[in-house]
Amino acid sequence: MDAWNPRYLRPHTGRTEQEMVFTTGSGEDFTIWNLVDFDTSRYYSRYSRVTPALRAGTVEVRCEYVGEETTDVEVSYKMTALTDKGVDSLKSFEGAAFADMINGWKRSVDQHLDVLLASDIR
Fold first, then answer.
1. Helix (H, G, I), strand (E, B) or coil at 24
2. CB 87, CB 69: distance < 8 Å
3. How far apart, in whole angstroms, are the C-alpha atoms of residue 68 and residue 13?
4. What is the CA radius of gyration of the chain?
5. CB 95 within 8 A of CB 60
6. Bigger pLDDT: 93 or 79?
7. How far apart are CA 82 and CA 103, in angstroms?
8. Most distant CA pair in the chain: distance in Å?
9. Is the previous residue joined to 52 through a cis bond, with omega within 30 degrees of 0?
10. Position 48 pLDDT exceeds 50
């Protein structure tokens, strides 16, 4: 995503590992992320995601090897509004808006695939 600009707090290098902490966004969209489950053998990650002005929840990512150049990825969000404004913000996690967000992530991953494949998170 074009707006994705994480600030890594733990570890400062941004290396993906269990208990990593980073932040994204600003203002009402300031979000704190914590990687609470990370299992490279199962290709599974679960993040806690808290946007204090709006919502909190988890994001699960499950990957399954399909072939030499193909991976199926399942992403699920479980979110709870923290404020009245947060109730409206949950609409971006429903229906077509959610599909657009996930497809945006797919485009971003595809654009950065060479860097991702070279990383040591696998």
1. strand
2. no
3. 29
4. 15
5. no
6. 79
7. 26
8. 46
9. no
10. yes
Burial class from Cβ neighbours inside 10 Å (0-12, 13-18, 19+) for residue 117 reads exposed
Provide the token pair at 105.
């992530």
Decide if 41 contacts 57 (C-beta within 8 A): no
Enumerate domains of the chain plus CATH numbers: 7-118 (3.30.530)
What does pTM read for this prediction?
0.85
Question: Could you tell me the CA-to-CA distances from 59 to 24, 50, 67, 68, 81 in Å, in that order?
Answer: 15, 11, 25, 26, 15
Nearest to residue 18, comparing CAs of 1, 42, 53? Answer: 42
Residue 105 — pLDDT band, cuts 50, 70, 90?
Answer: confident
Q: Is the pLDDT of residue 41 over 60?
A: yes
**In the numeric block, which tokens belong to residue 11?**
């570890």
Q: Tokens 């290396």 correspond to what residue?
A: 15
User: 108 to each of 24, 53, 102, 105, 117, how far by Cα in Å?
Assistant: 16, 27, 10, 5, 14
Q: How confident is the model at residue 42 (pLDDT cuts 50, 70, 90)?
A: very high
